[in-house]
Specification:
eleven-stranded mixed β-sheet; single chain; globular; 32% strand; alpha+beta
Length: 629
């Protein structure tokens, strides 16, 4: 934009419905014709300022008390900018990857009734558009708008962010703004500035490649084209879609010669193990006259990888990748009395296909539930080469920092909520220094060296579902997150008890949000409460046992749901054995008949320590740990 084209406007985030941070100086900025005399009116006060020679204006407002809505009017020579419906409250920056990004709509199995009537104009979210830029830091966002909570918009709110904001609003009775910058699959390096990345070292080659626009264009366009070609090939070769044949989704198809397969299960160990391509599965079920023609909800758990789903020949749903829950609305008129036919075309890109166990597979018609687990029939539509695993340009170092974080420099926040790490489990030992660099990087850019960072420790998850060749990587990354509490003004929500072994995206975001909010109440607002669960403090040998001491024990330690589980001890050989453990006051005594001279202990030290049950009396779980004498 040339200087002549500059007009009076504010940066994208300063728009109708915005929430500004209370009780701190407020900095706003935008563009106007160069050297323009400007005047701002806000809450009865008048502020005069001027754009600079480049056409940039900056306005600083004195600290404001919570409240609203207010209106900001900025006028120049023959032009006027009005920003309406402004609230003053607490603003939180939400960062990370898919579990922070995960919308309320993906958690309705748990919270459908709770959010059904959600309507709170004092809770608002600004979703920063997902973008990248390797040329350098941007000065403004590419778009976005503020949305207040109502029954429709709440479905697109970050679920963790929404429940945190809800608790915060109820506790302090102030408006809450959420600025969502999370992106699914993103590595922590993508959120660091180039300056910091270069200081860390080891990323020089990838930075050089990504700063070549031609490389980025070819990579992006090439990957999109290759993916499209792969799917076109499957569609062309899939026997179940050939025009000369009865489509395999048709209820008229004779599938009497198809083989049988139990659903749900992953296909490892079956004839379909390693298959890439398409597989059709069919199941018939009976309905009475009362169910005919009614709308319904079809639940197909989770499927690896993509699916196209048909009922009585009508496509009722499709999903392009493995993680989202398959909850498909069946419109009225599809179901019929008598035999109904369900057909699912599964597309497998990487050879790890199947139906994820432990999920719901059923058809719900009002209060009636038809179980769809058990024997299905299947037939291969086509086999092909694996889909190429691509490099996501969005997730390369500094790209999203430049486009999504740098434009926020100067904004005031109450604190940062961070949920990320799954994409860094391939090199967990590096995570601690990367996270420390991110905290320092963001605090410097946001001009707040004391900016609170509240982060989520990774939950329990069965990494074998991803074909993880190196079990234990999640445990190692959790250890790095635990060590990050040495950074000042940080707090961590332990979540090893609220994950889902069979789902990378556990739905229970409310408990996580409430744990983060407890931490905020203590660290940010100084409330004298127990805000975090027990943390390992020190270790002593006691006869043939080890006594473990903890901090943050609150009202005392508890073993919930029976005897303590997931404690292990090792001797001088370093081999760990399952151990017995007993709460004794604010300590835990741990021993094993297999280890007469224990020198080391660990707790919940696995990727999926499901059922780990050491808590404080306040119901906050202990963090996994390992320690040696």
């Amino acid at each position: 934009m040339s200087r002549e084209d500059l007009r009076l406007q504010a940066a994208a985030i300063f728009s109708d419905g915005m929430v500004l941070q209370r009780e701190v100086p407020l900095r706003l900025w935008g563009t106007a014709p160069p050297q323009e005399e400007l005047e701002a009116r806000f809450r009865g006060a008048v502020y005069r300022f001027q754009s600079d020679a480049a056409g940039t204006w900056r306005l600083e407002l004195p600290p404001q008390e919570a409240g609203g809505p207010f209106e900001l009017v900025i006028t120049g020579a023959g032009s006027e900018l009005v920003i309406r419906d402004i609230l003053i409250g607490d603003v939180w920056l939400l960062g990370g990857q898919s579990n922070m990004e995960l919308p309320v709509a993906r958690t309705l199995d748990l919270y459908a009734q709770e959010v059904k009537g959600a309507d709170n104009p004092w809770i608002r979210q600004y979703r920063v558009p997902i973008s990248f830029n390797f040329a350098g830091p941007q000065t403004d966002l590419s778009g976005g708008s503020w949305e207040a909570v109502n029954p429709q918009t709440v479905l697109e709110f970050s679920a963790l962010g929404y429940f945190f904001a809800q608790a915060h609003n109820q506790r302090y009775r102030v408006p809450v703004g959420l600025v969502l910058t999370a992106v699914g699959g993103s590595r922590i390096e993508a959120w660091l500035s180039e300056e910091v990345i270069r200081e860390l070292g080891g990323y020089e080659d990838v930075l050089a490649r990504c700063q070549d626009p031609e490389y980025v264009r070819e990579l992006t366009d090439g990957q999109l084209a290759a993916t499209a070609t792969w799917f076109e090939g499957i569609n062309a070769r899939d026997v179940g879609l050939q025009e000369s044949e009865t489509p395999w989704y048709s209820p008229d198809l004779d599938d009497g010669d198809w083989d049988g397969l139990t659903v749900p299960q992953l296909w490892k160990g079956t004839e379909l193990e390693g298959l890439c391509g398409s597989v059709w599965l069919r199941k018939q079920f009976q309905l009475d006259q009362g169910a005919a023609g009614r709308g319904a909800l079809l639940r197909l758990g989770a499927i690896a990888d993509a699916d196209f789903t048909y009922l009585n020949g009508v496509q009722v749903g499709k999903t392009g990748y493995r993680y989202p829950p398959r909850n498909y609305e069946v419109p009225p008129g599809v179901l019929k009395a008598g035999i109904n036919t369900l057909a699912v075309r599964v597309i497998v890109g990487y050879g790890g296909g199947g139906f994820i166990e432990g999920k719901s597979y059923a058809l719900e018609i009002g209060s009636e539930r038809i179980d769809l687990t058990g024997e299905w029939k299947y037939k291969v539509g086509c086999r092909t080469e694996p889909l190429q695993r691509f490099t996501s340009v969005h997730h390369q170092p500094s790209g999203m920092y430049n486009a999504m974080i740098a434009p926020l420099k100067g904004c005031a926040f109450r604190g940062v909520l961070w949920y990320q790490g799954e994409s860094n489990t391939g090199a967990p030992e590096e995570y601690g220094r990367l996270f420390a660099a991110l905290v320092e990087n963001w605090r410097r850019d946001l001009s707040d060296p004391q900016l609170p960072f509240l982060f989520v420790q990774l939950p329990n998850y069965d990494t074998t579902l991803e074909g993880d060749p190196q079990p234990g990587q999640w445990a190692l990354l959790r250890e790095q997150q635990l060590k990050s509490l040495e950074l000042p003004r940080t707090a961590m929500a332990v979540t090893v008890d609220v994950g889902e072994a069979n789902d990378l995206h556990p739905q229970n975001k409310k408990d996580i949000a409430l744990r983060l909010h407890l931490a905020a109440r203590r660290m940010v607002f100084g409330e004298p409460i127990t805000a975090q669960g027990p943390f390992f403090a020190r270790l002593e040998r006691e006869n043939g046992a080890l006594r473990v001491y903890f901090t943050d024990t609150g009202g005392g330690l508890e073993a919930r749901g029976g005897e303590l589980r997931w404690f292990e001890v090792c001797g001088p050989d370093g081999v760990f054995h399952a151990a017995q453990a007993e709460v004794q006051g604010e300590t835990v005594l741990v021993w094993s008949a297999d280890v007469p001279e224990p020198v080391g202990v660990r707790y919940a030290w696995h990727d999926n320590p499901e059922g780990a049950n050491l808590y404080s009396a306040e119901g906050l779980p202990a963090s996994p740990f390992r320690a040696h004498l």
